[in-house]
Amino acid sequence: MTNTALITGASRGLGRALARALGAAGWKLVLTARGGADLDRAAAELDATAIPGDVTDPAHVARLAAAAPELDLLVNNASDLGATPLPHLADYPLNAFRRALETNVTAPLALIQATLPALRAAGGSIVNVTSDAATGAYEGWGGYGAGKAALEQLSNVLAAEEPAVRVWWVDPGEMNTRMLADAVGAGEAAQATDPAKVAAALYDLISSRPASGKVSLQ
Fold it and tell me: Are 46 and 103 in contact (CB under 8 A)?
């Protein structure tokens, strides 16, 4: 029987790289991202189902859950960097802070709630992509880090409450992505790890299905 994965933020970076790894292994893929053109290209490459949209939109969450009535893996990879250039918390625009929390915490929980019946039935897995900004005191990263810290604790509690489902909160480390370039500049981002290398380690985690918990990939 073919396994099915739903991946958010799948049009580029780690999401797209993981989709390639899973697709090569024969997984059926449902992919979503806000960038419709990039998402369509990724889906065409992988013979996947593309559902563009914003994960903070409840109607979009409902469409995603309906597209995967049988689901083995949910990957909450979509993230919002927050205000840029990265401001100190004393100057952080509260609207940008709220938006980051909505994308990085509330939206993953909404999608988890919508897909849990299918994941429970399959004995499936959830990957919540987090960051070392969840625990490190990095200047300018307070908005993003606060959201990822909340996502880690949400994952921790979810793992205790849902013993039939594997829950991993995964710190992928610094990767050469557009998000990192937006934060630190393209030159510094180019020195970071290729997302394909991180995706290979994440695929190994998904395949080996260890107990729920926090995982660092670099």
Answer: no
| pTM greater than 0.90 | yes
How much is the CA Rg of the chain, to the nearest whole Å?
Answer: 16
CA–CA dist 199, 145 (Å, integer): 22
- Give how far the C-alpha of residue 203 lies from the chain's centroid of Cα atoms, to the nearest Å: 14
From the list 192, 89, 209, 75, the residue with the least C-alpha distance to 130 is 75
Q: Is 144 tagged catalytic? A: yes
E-strand spans in the chain?
4-8, 28-32, 49-50, 73-76, 125-129, 166-171, 213-216
From CA 10, how far away is CA 18, in angstroms rounded?
A: 8
Residues in the chain, pLDDT under 70 = none
